[in-house]
Design goal:
The protein is α/β, with parallel strands linked by helices and 606 residues long. 65% of the residues lie in helices and 9% in strands. The chain is built from 21 helices and ten strands.
């Protein structure tokens, strides 16, 4: 009973999944309407070719039998029939190649179109979604489904052709005897249901294995990456990683073999039924011919029609099953496209203020990450005045980076408001707001692109303005790094691509800082981007930052007190709130958390 419930439950889910097909067909149409139309048109023409070829063959056989049996001379009409059969065969062969050509065009167009759509939609989703492992599983399945479902699209095209071919052949068989058609269908149906059932089990298995496959992909990368190579050798992690990979891959292998074995046994038994159905129909036609009810040409026509109808009916059922089963795999792709960002611009959103007059203000702001019960920020009140430079300090996990993400509206607060010039950030146009903010995070991106492109991502529309890029590089002290590169601004950075040159951590940071200076925004934020620099280099970077942000609003996070004292004001975060706020001298005089941390760090230099 449990297996029966699983079987019918699987079919119910499979039929429900067919609702996924129309939205995907819309995507296919959008990717190349002309190619789609031509492909369908030529398939329609091709679908009636087999019936025409069989009918001409019948006429030729009957004509030959008549000539032989009556000892008559060969009539010219026979050769016209042979020429017609040749023309149909040639026409069908050319059509098949045209369809293959159109399918290859559609494959490229669809793959390109759907990949762009996935990239575009992923970039529009909330940053908070990337904190959820479930989202990563869905995103991974969506990426795979985006291109792997090309087979389903081609199956739909073939299905149209198969249905028309099977219908035309079936009608011709039906005109001679309805029992022949019933025998064919009765033989094919069990195999179709069996294949569909196991295809559904395959989908369920793949869905279940997605998290494990992600772990395997991670272990593969970890076992062969330059970044991990040093620790793998020094810590002797080779056997640990291989053992873990082997255990997980063995689990997947065992599941795959079990399903394949069950499918082999059941499929073999069910295919016997289909073979019996075909030969029963075949014997019936031979018997009718021997009894004199059918001509030799009709026998040839019907046997050919039975063979091709049987094959096409099986293909129709197989294609339907394949489409239904692959439609199950589209669930995550369409669910991914249905996800909508909550952080987006309202209709008629306000432009960002130019210039900023009053600055940013946090009013009773609380925030927690998805799935976490702990509030990172708890009723926080904070003000960054226009043209003010503020240093934000605190121990790890106190919410410094979270505050930056809220200020830049990468997140929205759970409670309270973040205001800009007295207006809630949610009222501003996001794109326009982002243009007035330059941020470099500690985990900044190292783009495997040219030095020019690495800087230009800060303001990508200025990528051709080399003079502007050089000015930004001068400000961040990246220019001296770039001048040492063989191809200077056109040098490929990183080791991923041919002739790429990797940089040290500090050199990469100077490149990243150039992006912030290129942005020329009203608010500049440095979230510990100089962590890999030595104390002297960091001091120079922040000294330059202090000079270049004169008249601008600036927020920077650093653990070195020699740099934070450059700020106009220092804000200490503790337990999700502002614990202390004031100048370096005032906070030392206060003798609180800042003074304790300062003395602790100063003692290490004595």
């Amino acid at each position: 009973m449990a297996e029966e419930g699983k079987f019918w439950g699987g079919w119910s889910e499979r039929l429900t999944a067919l609702r996924n097909v129309p939205p995907v067909l819309r995507i296919v149409w959008q990717s190349g309407p002309i190619v789609v139309f031509l492909g369908l048109f030529f398939r329609l023409v091709t679908s009636v070719v087999p019936l025409g070829a069989l009918w001409i063959t019948k006429l030729i056989v009957d004509a030959v039998v008549d000539i032989v049996s009556r000892h008559q001379p060969v009539k010219p009409m026979l050769w016209w029939l042979v020429a017609g059969e040749f023309a149909i065969a040639l026409f069908g062969s050319i059509l098949a190649r045209v369809i293959d050509y159109l399918d290859s065009l559609l494959a490229d167009k669809y793959t390109r179109h759907i990949s762009i759509q996935v990239m575009k939609h992923a970039s529009e989703l909330d940053l908070i979604a990337y904190e959820d492992p479930v989202f990563y599983d869905r995103l991974e399945r969506a990426r795979v489904q985006a291109t792997d479902r090309l087979g389903m699209i081609q199956s739909i095209g073939r299905l149209v052709q198969q249905v028309i071919t099977a219908a035309s052949l079936s009608i011709s068989i039906l005109l001679f005897s309805p029992w022949l058609l019933l025998l064919l269908i009765a033989g094919i149906l069990p195999a179709f249901l069996g294949e569909s059932h196991f295809a559904f089990l395959g989908y369920a298995r793949n869905f279940r294995q997605t998290p494990i496959r992600r772990q395997l992909d991670y272990l593969r990368v970890l076992g062969g990456s330059r970044e991990a190579a040093k620790e793998l050798k020094l810590f002797g992690l080779k056997d640990f990683l291989i053992t873990r990979f082997t255990r997980l891959s063995n689990h997947i292998y065992a599941e795959n073999v079990d399903l394949a074995r069950r499918r082999l046994i059941a499929g073999s038994l069910l295919s016997m039924i289909g073979t019996l159905g075909y030969y029963a129909a075949y014997v019936y036609v031979i018997w009718r011919t021997v009894m004199g009810s059918l001509t030799i040409g009709t026998l040839t026509f019907l046997t050919g029609a039975i063979v091709q109808a049987s094959a096409n009916l099986q293909q129709v059922f197989s294609s339907l099953s394949s489409i239904a089963d692959q439609a199950l795999f589209l669930t995550d792709l369409l669910a991914f496209f249905e996800m909508q960002p909550t952080i987006r611009s309202k209709p008629n959103a306000l432009p960002a203020p130019r210039p900023i007059v009053r600055g940013f203000e946090f009013r009773n702001v609380s925030f927690s990450y998805p799935g976490a019960s702990r509030m990172v920020l708890k009723g926080l009140d904070f003000h960054l005045h226009a043209g003010e430079r503020v240093a934000l300090i605190g121990e790890n996990g106190e919410g410094k980076t979270t505050l930056v993400k809220l200020m830049t509206r990468l997140y929205d607060p759970v409670e309270g408001q973040v205001l800009l010039d007295g207006v809630d950030l949610r009222e501003f146009d996001l794109e326009d707001l982002y243009r007035e903010i330059g941020v470099i995070f500690q985990d900044f991106m190292r783009y495997e692109m040219t030095a020019r492109e690495n800087i230009a991502v800060g303001r990508i529309d200025e990528i051709e303005d080399l003079a502007l890029l050089k000015t930004a590089a001068d400000k961040s002290m990246a220019s001296e790094v770039i001048e040492r590169l063989p191809r200077h601004y056109d040098q490929m950075l990183g080791r991923r691509f041919d002739k790429g040159v990797d940089l040290s951590g500090g050199e990469w940071q100077k490149i990243a800082l150039a992006r912030a200076y290129l942005r020329d925004a009203q608010l500049l934020i440095l979230d510990e981007p100089t962590a890999a620099l030595d104390a002297r280099s960091e001091f120079e970077v922040f000294q330059r930052f202090a000079e270049l942000t004169t008249g601008k609003s600036a927020l920077f996070i650093s653990h070195r007190f020699s740099t934070v004292r450059m700020a106009d004001r220092i804000v200490v975060l503790h337990d999700g709130r502002v614990a202390e706020d004031g100048s370096h001298e005032a906070l030392l005089h206060l003798g609180g958390r800042y003074a304790d941390m300062f003395e602790l760090q100063a003692a290490s230099y004595r």
